[in-house]
Hints:
Blueprint: E1 4-5, E2 8-9, H1 47-56, H2 65-76, H3 99-102, H4 117-141, H5 148-158, H6 160-166, H7 174-190, H8 207-216, E3 234-235, H9 242-245, E4 252-253, H10 256-267, H11 278-283, E5 288-290, E6 300-303, E7 312-316, E8 319-322, E9 331-334, E10 341-345
Antiparallel strand pairs: 1-2, 3-4, 5-10, 6-7, 6-10, 7-8, 8-9
Helix pairs in contact: 1-2, 1-4, 2-7, 4-5, 5-6, 5-7, 8-10
Amino acid sequence: xxxxxxxxxxxxxxxxxxxxxxxxxxxxxxxxxxxxxxxxxxxxxxxxxxxxxxxxxxxxxxxxxxxxxxxxxxxxxxxxxxxxxxxxxxxxxxxxxxxxxxxxxxxxxxxxxxxxxxxxxxxxxxxxxxxxxxxxxxxxxxxxxxxxxxxxxxxxxxxxxxxxxxxxxxxxxxxxxxxxxxxxxxxxxxxxxxxxxxxxxxxxxxxxxxxxxxxxxxxxxxxxxxxxxxxxxxxxxxxxxxxxxxxxxxxxxxxxxxxxxxxxxxxxxxxxxxxxxxxxxxxxxxxxxxxxxxxxxxxxxxxxxxxxxxxxxxxxxxxxxxxxxxxxxxxxxxxxxxxxxxxxxxx
Length: 347
């Protein structure tokens, strides 16, 4: 973590990982990020810290358990005794000059220490939430722009001052610009892919329900033309037209077929990785033709005609989940909005 302390930037090198599995960035969205909707997948964090990671997620709605866990993995790889070359300490890698401002004796041991896992985790949540509270004000005033999760992570790494200077989370230094997507990529492993409770027709489990659950975890992620793959959202691509006018090439998210690639790969444990092009998916031999009146949650629906330029995931109850178009986000819609459809079932 890199934090501003009395005007001084203290640099801690962070691990750099490939950016093709980045978590979504809602560029220009001043609303709260989707992190508060995400719950911790059981058994993904060391048992002695699970209680504290869950508790940390109650400090403020902008900071979720998967976010806390992913930060810790990025910062220290769950080593409570970690010390960086710059002197950052513990699970959450607080600098000695910063620790007193957030120190808490969370477990009642009598000492507040960055090397105590419980103390570090709750201090991390406190620090993240302080950033979030300040960011909410600056987003509302237009002083900064971007996704609240991106801003929290950027400020955790380089300090809130650099976020202000940049007008958002895209601060333009290599370390922070790698840190933000790296943490968001790690969030996936800690996120429970349970289906939302407000949809009644999910089925009773199995492949189709897992397709729905995997895709529904990304509601609110931005549309990015060419984005999405078996590991999750990816950087959008240039299309030389409409998508470029929306800046899709600067977003990390899904297009319609990329969301399907991800959901089917997740449901199959990576056994089924579909091609990205919609027509190729429609004609893929692993897809079984299903009559429209027999569609089930997790089936893939295409506008009828043999050469679709869109597709979506049927979630039941006459609804679909889709990455609709540039400027939109992964969201629900009526199946009827697609008109006549062809249905394919994988798995």
